[in-house]
Amino acid sequence: QLQLVESGGGLVQPGGSLRLSCAPSGFTLDYYAIGWFRQAPGKEREGVSCIDGSGDTTTYADSVQGRFTVSRDNTKNTVWLQMNNLKPEDTAVYYCAADWGHICPGWSLDEYDYWGQGTQVTVSS
Length: 125
Known about the structure:
It is a single chain. By secondary structure, the protein is mainly beta. The chain is 0% helix and 49% strand. The protein contains no helices and 11 strands. The protein has strands at residues 3-7, 10-12, 18-25, 32-39, 46-51, 58-60, 68-73, 78-83, 92-100, 114-115, 119-123. Strands 2, 4, 5, 6, 9, 10 and 11 form a 7-stranded mixed beta sheet that branches. The model has no long low-confidence stretch (mean pLDDT 95).
């Protein structure tokens, strides 16, 4: 079964950092744009960041611009989301998703072909 696996979530104090990882199971990421999404309790899933297949182009939601950095290493078949200066409002389940075709498709959930199961990020003192 083709899927993505996220890891790296946890509990962190405000101002702290976490690095999430996203790796595929059953396929390689070379030709996929990878999006990061999050869903807080009672809220809709929202786009956080996206990186194209080559890693040359990245996009961020306004709420995380300047604090989060997405990167990838196709030789390691992994994408990371570095999250710095975390705030309580960043608390959510974070998901990665893959869209075949190199270019980031935007934030529409329907555009993505494969999803991970999510990893919990809690920012609290």
